[in-house]
Write a structure and sequence with these properties.
By secondary structure, the chain is mostly helical. It is built from 5 helices and no strands. About 45% of the residues lie in helices and about 0% in strands. The N and C termini lie far apart (about 35 Å).
Length: about 120
């Protein structure tokens, strides 16, 4: 947001007042109460609020929001990776992410990083 604000100011537009909140819930409460004019959030959260009819989602895809799952137990990590891979192969993974306005990963899901 700060980079976007800087770019807008460089084009001669008025700067944004950027506030941060501890949680998305608090940010949306501030929007509901009229304390802020706009909330920037990850697409999945914004999509959920729009789906409920609470707020309109007017811009999407400003910044990808990668997701990581961290596990200490390799057996569990392998099982979850396999289950997610199966969901990806049979199409449920893509359908779920699309429902929440996210771009599904096209590459096969894989376990990465150090393992115990």
């Amino acid at each position: 947001m700060r980079e976007l604000d800087k770019a807008l100011v460089e084009k001669g537009l008025k700067p944004m007042t950027i506030r941060t909140f501890d949680t998305a819930t608090v940010a949306y409460q501030a929007l509901r109460a009229g304390q802020v004019e706009v909330v920037a959030n990850i697409d999945a959260t914004a999509a959920e609020y729009a789906k409920r009819g609470e707020f309109d989602r007017v811009i999407t895809g400003l910044s990808p929001a990668p997701i990581a799952l961290a596990m200490k137990n390799k057996t569990l990590a392998d099982a979850i990776t396999a289950a997610l891979g199966e969901l990806q192969r049979e199409g449920s993974y893509q359908k779920l992410l699309t429902e929440y306005g996210l771009e599904p990963l096209s590459a096969p899901l894989a376990l990465r990083g150090p393992t115990p």
